[in-house]
Amino acid sequence: MNFFANYLNTKPNTLFLAPMEEITDTAFRCICKSMGADILVSEFVSSEALIRNVQKSFNKMSFDESERPFGIQIFGHDENSLVKAAQVAEAQHPDFIDINWGCPVKKVVSKGAGAAILKDIPKMVACSKAVVDAVRLPVSVKTRLGWDMNDRPIVSAAEQLQDVGIQAITIHGRTRSQIYSGVADWTLIGMVKNNYRMKIPIIGNGDITSGEKALLFKQRYGVDALMIGRAAIGNPWIFKEIKNTFEHQIFTPPTLQERIDTLLQHIKKTIPLAGERKACLEIRRHYAGYFKGVSNFKTVRMELMKVDTLEELEKVLYTEKQDA
User: Fold this and answer.
1) 256-265: long-range contacts (C-beta < 8 A, 24 or more apart)?
2) What tens digit of pLDDT does each residue of 119-155 get?
3) Is 103 noted as a catalytic residue in this protein?
4) Annotated active-site residue in 30, 32, 103, 127
5) Does the reported pTM lie above 0.90?
6) How many Å apart are CA 94 and CA 63, to the nearest integer?
7) CB atoms within 10 A of CB 214
């Protein structure tokens, strides 16, 4: 039985929240879930760090029961460490294990992990098979089209990953060399999905920034589900917008009060996990999204960047609301 296929059969408009380092912690995941995200994944966890018992990496695997279906994503370059990490992750009782074969960040790639594996597809397949064989949970993979525009082996790679037991593949429509620049190429994602040999679900990812784009990509390329990444940062309403579009309903953007309320909910969920000062620092990367389109917000944002306590944050936000 394919875990992902069974789930998607019951929820054909499934949306995944992409795993993003220092973004998709428990607090933000829960908010996105309340807005319509269906399947959540942890921040990526280093396999080497897990087997060295690094506490920070263990913390990344924590999740609330309300987050299910929930997956733990691991990354690494060594087959043995990936297998051990997958077994450690399995002991946390998520619904699935995801392997990151797509992260383009230099510090990850330089160690041979993430998107670096796209230069060695046989190793990608061998490591993936080893993880599949080592755990009882379903295993999925998140990857990219290839290393660069001259080397995009995703169609063949997807077949091979399916053949060794991977149950779902998420494809970001860029190469590693593109990082996040240029435009995601969904034509190759569509080729993977429409390959007669492919039987497992294919999840499309890249440049999904609105309900209209989500509907277009899903209808045009036939993917089984969509994964939302950077467009969700500070904008958990993107899931509600997409669901409304799929259901042919009008999406009403959040009011300023709703933005403030959600931001405060976000930081209040983060404080017990990270501490007050760190929570105030971490929330800063979400400000641009939370208040996108709000007039004269630049000055307020500068004030928000200075705060170190929840009380200071609330004072700035409510001053902004009164002045709006």
Assistant:
1) 256/294, 256/320, 256/321, 256/324, 257/321, 259/290, 259/291, 259/294, 260/317, 260/318, 260/320, 260/321, 262/31, 262/236, 262/290, 263/290, 263/317, 264/313, 264/314, 264/317, 265/31
2) 999 999 999 999 999 999 999 999 999 999 999 999 9
3) yes
4) 103
5) yes
6) 8
7) 24
